[in-house]
Write a structure and sequence with these properties.
The protein is α+β, with helices and mostly antiparallel strands. It has 1 helix and 3 strands; from the N terminus they run E-E-H-E. Strands 2-1-3 form a 3-stranded antiparallel β-sheet. The radius of gyration is 9 Å and the shape is globular. The protein starts with a strand and ends with a strand. Pfam families: DUF7560.
Length: 45
C-alpha cells in the first residue's frame, strides 16, 4: 500500500495517508477543516 503526505491548503495540517484515505480526502475534503483539496495537495511520502 502506498503512502502520501497530504498538506491542506486551508489549515496547513500535514498528515501521512494511504491510498484509501487519499481518495476519501479528495471526495470530501480535509478531515480537519473540510477545505476542498486537489491531487496537487498530495506528495509521495
Amino acid at each position: 500500500m502506498t503512502t502520501a503526505e497530504f498538506s491542506c491548503p486551508g489549515c496547513n495540517q500535514t498528515i501521512e495517508v494511504n491510498d484509501e484515505m487519499r481518495e476519501t480526502i479528495l471526495e470530501v475534503g480535509c478531515p480537519v477543516c473540510t477545505t476542498a483539496v486537489s491531487t496537487d495537495d498530495f506528495a509521495e511520502a
